[in-house]
Amino acid sequence: MTQKKSLILKIVIPVLIVAVIGVIWLIKASNNQPGETSSPQNIENGAELPEHLKDADFSLAVTAEVDFAALAEYGLPVIVDYGSDSCIPCKQMAPALKTLNEEMTGKAFVKFADVWVYTDAANNVPIQVIPTQVLFNADGTPFVPSDELAAEIEFSMYSDKTSGDHVFTVHQGGLTEEQMRSILKEMGVE
Fold first, then answer.
1. CB 184 within 8 A of CB 105
2. Burial of 5 by CB count in 10 Å (0-12 exposed, 13-18 middle, 19+ buried)?
3. Burial, 158: exposed, middle or buried (Cβ in 10 Å; 0-12, 13-18, 19+)?
4. β-pairing, 78-83 with 109-114?
């Protein structure tokens, strides 16, 4: 009988320890996501979103490919940060992304895609390193920075190989909140 109890204890205790660790990990992971899944319902000073933006998804978290054409229909600028919760520069950007996402609701789309968790999220964009931000104007065209802004922040422009049309503007590496605000200001967001 003691051998049976000993064998049960050797199996049950490790299983319980693994289960407790798993539950703790799940709780921490759900609380530490820089991508909020809820979308703010109100904007500045409690004002309601305009009717044409009521069905827009202003949540920070992206879990699949971003449909830039669909976002362009809302007539707002777009910044999507492709990174990971595990990358140090990405972690440094997370508070600024969250702040700007909340402040820019109804004015711009500010989103974050964790490409290590949602690997398909970056299938339609030119990502070479993380973090990388993809930038589009309110009319759906790729953002083109002024010479002054381009002297402060390095941007890469991507063109279609066949037509030569400009299809993407990206910034590789981390951006500060101030830099993102400068980009948004050039995109027409006050």
1. no
2. exposed
3. middle
4. parallel
16 CA to centre of own chain: 36
Pair 107, 74: CB distance under 8 Å:
no
CA 53 to CA 125: how far, in whole Å? 25
Among the listed ranges 32-36, 68-72, 110-114, which one has the minimum average pLDDT value? Answer: 32-36
Q: What is the pLDDT of residue 111?
A: 97
Eight-class DSSP state of 50:
P
- Number of helices (H) and strands (E), helices first, in the chain? 5, 8
Whether residue 41 is predicted with pLDDT greater than 50 in this model: the reply is no
Of the listed ranges 14-23, 26-35, 58-67, 124-133, the least confidently predicted one is 26-35
The token pair at 134 is 């993809």
Count of residues for the chain? 190
Q: pLDDT class for 72, splitting at 50, 70, 90?
A: very high
